[in-house]
Design brief:
It contains eight helices and twelve strands. It is of the alpha/beta class. A hairpin with a 4-residue loop joins β9 and β10. Keywords: Cell cycle, Cell division, Cell membrane, Membrane, Transmembrane, Transmembrane helix.
Length: 261
């Protein structure tokens, strides 16, 4: 017959000891998996480095352009080729870009594996000077940037006409004419201003009235008086050849031939 006390002692579970061999096997497995993972990470890094070194150029990102189209800037920079990105030299691209008359400065960066980033600073056009059948784009200082091309995207420019190339190369005169243009354009909108000589320019207003000025010597009160008398002068536009305004206290009216005053 079994004693109850002995039975309770027999019911307690026996603790099993984890063998040292089992722990060693787990450690070996963890080390093996770490080695395999490290190998794949190293292989992926090496492949990425290899791909970056030999990957061809796929994208050209252009920033800062206003007048020049992006396709033209890209062609200037890459010469139309698609080579390994590593083969493009930033200094060569820089000199190719600034050889264009519109580009004042440029910054070039490579973004691996396949992108070229270009930021340009363009010259700012102020006026178009028309000499015969050619339009020359100039900046605010009267310096020629380039001749007009159809692909250029230009803002609204001051229009200047001249029959003499000597006036085109006279920066001081061009600057003075641009300043005068802006003053007169505030009175009424101008179509273009014609340089006849250093001391005589003719502003052709869109309404049909022609106003003669000397851009180097025209008192401010002459511009004010023109604004005050504009309606009267405009009513005579079909009879007048031009109105000279650069005097202290008068206008000089030049009548068309055959017109009765």
């Amino acid at each position: 017959m079994l004693d109850y006390k002995d039975l309770k002692k027999d019911e307690k579970p026996k603790q099993k000891n984890v063998s040292f061999k089992y722990i060693v096997n787990i450690a070996k497995l963890v080390v093996s998996l770490s080695i395999i993972a490290g190998f794949f990470i190293l292989a992926a890094y090496a492949y990425n480095q290899y791909s970056s070194k030999y990957a061809k150029l796929r994208y050209v990102v252009i920033d800062g352009n206003r007048a020049l189209p992006k396709t033209l800037i890209s062609h200037i920079a890459t010469k139309g080729s698609s080579l390994k990105l590593s083969s493009y030299k930033e200094n060569i691209i820089y000199y190719n870009l600034i050889s264009n008359p519109w580009i004042e400065n440029a910054r070039i960066s490579k973004i691996y594996p396949d992108t070229l980033y270009i930021k340009v600073k363009e010259k700012s056009p102020s006026a178009a000077v028309i000499l015969k059948k050619t339009a020359y784009i100039i900046d605010k200082n009267g310096s020629i940037i380039d001749t007009y091309k159809q692909y250029l995207r230009l803002p609204k420019l001051i229009k200047i006409s001249t029959p003499n190339k000597a006036f085109l190369n006279n920066k001081t005169l061009l600057k003075a004419v641009m300043v005068m243009y802006e003053k007169l354009d505030k009175v009424e909108k101008i179509n273009y201003i014609e340089i006849v000589s250093n001391s005589y320019q003719l502003a052709h207003f869109k309404g049909g009235l022609n106003v003669a000025v000397n851009s180097f010597d025209c008192p401010e009160k002459a511009i004010t008086r023109l604004k005050e008398k504009w309606n009267y002068l405009y009513s005579l536009k079909n009879k007048l050849d031009s109105v000279s305004i650069c005097f202290d206290n008068k206008f000089v009216l030049r009548w068309k031939k055959g017109v009765k005053r």
